[in-house]
Write a structure and sequence with these properties.
The structure is a homodimer. By secondary structure, chain A is α+β, with helices and mostly antiparallel strands. Chain A has 10 helices and 12 strands. In chain A, helix 2 packs parallel to helix 6 and helix 6 packs antiparallel against helix 10. Chains A and B meet through helix 1, strand 2, strand 3, helix 2 and strand 4 of A and helix 1, strand 2, strand 3, helix 2 and strand 4 of B.
Chain lengths: 316, 316
């Protein structure tokens, strides 16, 4: 099966919302009047962003999920995706499973694959995601104000725990926790519904991919404010929360969470709780913004918690 | 210099036409009312799409050029780009030169870089290009009709000649020809002005990246017509045209041309010649479409020319 047959068989699907989908020099869509177009790209490299033996179905899910997470962080509705794959060889079974994972998530969120590129090469995946939001509305990183609450969705630290267990840096000897952590690492759920629900309520947002403190740091720096995070308030799996200070680096700086971190005025607390409940998504108030710069992670007694590393730098 | 500093220093530039450029979870643009959005992605892998020792400035040019060529093939105006790079290490000198080549071409065509991703990994580049054209207008591959002229822009075969010389498959012993071939391989010029000028004149178009016959084949198959190409009419460098039948595989099936191939009714010949002249771009009428399927390459006596290989298949 050659390159063109492979693309045609597994990636050329109906894209009813597109004027022209996979198969021409470019795809064509007609943007929704009154909306801005949001777009983002993420590249995943074997051995860096995923383990070489990851199930291709899980990889298909995650490749799209990390991009949808960017749309969620803008409060945008995800619409269209383009997928580039470099593959060592045209392995049909692998591509079939990868496509199954990719499209299951795409279908769940009404996202259509409208283009891409397939080539030989070291296993590398790059998705471009396009979304729409009403003109002028977006959860930008630079919109936080001093005195905002800081919120985070879902549970933190699980993906990082799974990675560290796999690398032998620590040993997770609780099977339930390990299963939850592995699932979170392989099948992160992009928070699209929550992001859209926060569009009228929150001020600034980002998705947590490099670690909570690193991604919050981008919001704080862009907005020109400082922040404090309460270690005791960081949400996680009950079995991880019980040992939170032992694993605080995973919770606060672990990466691979794909949760939303956002700031909002305290006057919005009840609305945020209610909207999150409608979305079926846990949200936790984990800190606040302040005048100044930098970010402190505080323990229950208000003392600064020191971490070795606040996030992931791909060349660090 | 870490990942974020590297991005900020070399790739974060003003993007006046964007509502939000590099640095947030997504970029935001406001589509032009009355236009469709055209988008495409191409991935370049070291050792497959470029030689490992290519000058980074040339690579920056080519990485964008091959994507702009897709916009040209649609007749769209290129507007915005997103760039993903996997790099073995954060080599500042390399990135600086790459960015210089990329932005020189972007600036020449009014294209703004509004987002991207940088990671460690085997050298891989992926650009997503977005363009606009008036709603409902596009040079689609499926729009050719039997009886159309087949046209191609510029000169064919030079890029392929440079690759084959470099690989030792043949020896180009004319320095002028080798210099022209190498320049064409490293600095292809996307035919954006010509594509836009052909939007009201041509029917179907594609860009020639995998080889003339392969890319024409996609037009013919999508349109449900056959084609014949006249070997004697294929345009190239004068020194290559003089030995055209010796190098017919380069001209007709070599790849790396990044010229436009398009079909148009014979009634448009004068308009096409005139519009191409305004663009300063050579165009050549090289064949015609017919009822049926398949494509014949004919010599001056009307006999079929046989080639070993009609195009490039990344897993072939």
């Amino acid at each position: 099966m050659n390159e063109f047959e492979l693309i045609s068989r597994y990636f050329k699907r109906d894209a009813p919302s597109a004027r022209l989908g996979v198969g021409d020099d470019a795809a064509i869509v007609r943007p929704t009047p009154g909306c801005d177009l949001h777009m983002s790209v993420d590249m995943l490299v074997e051995g860096r962003h995923f383990f070489s033996d990851v199930a291709p179905r899980a990889l298909g899910h995650k490749t799209l999920a990390v991009n949808l997470s960017d749309m969620a962080a803008m409060g945008a509705r995800a619409r269209w995706a383009l997928l580039s794959i470099a593959l060592p060889k045209a392995n049909e079974a692998w591509v079939s499973e990868f496509a199954a994972g990719f499209f299951a998530l795409a279908d769940a969120h009404g996202v259509e694959l409208i283009g891409g590129d397939t080539t030989g090469g070291p296993l590398t995946l790059s998705v471009t995601i396009l979304g729409e939001a009403p003109s002028g509305q977006a959860l930008r990183r630079d919109a936080a104000q001093a005195g905002d609450d800081i919120w985070v969705s879902g549970e933190l630290g699980l993906g990082a725990l799974a990675v560290r267990h796999r690398l032998g840096w620590l040993n997770v000897n609780d099977a339930e926790l390990l299963a939850a952590a592995t699932h979170k690492l392989e099948y992160p759920e992009p928070r699209l519904a929550l992001g859209a629900a926060m569009l009228p309520l929150a001020r600034a947002a980002a998705d947590v991919s490099d670690g909570l403190l690193a991604d919050l740091g981008h919001i704080l720096a862009a907005s020109g404010v400082a922040g404090e995070i309460w270690a005791e308030a960081l949400p996680s799996h009950p079995l991880l929360e019980a040992r939170r200070m032992e694993h605080i680096a995973c919770l606060a700086a672990g990466g691979d969470d794909y949760e939303l971190i956002f700031t909002a005025p305290p006057s919005r607390r009840a609305d945020i709780e209610a909207a999150a409940q409608v979305c079926g998504c846990r949200v936790s108030r984990i800190g606040r913004t302040l005048a100044g710069k930098g970010c402190a992670l505080l323990d229950a007694e208000g003392r600064a918690v020191k971490l070795d590393k606040e996030g992931y730098d791909h060349f660090g």
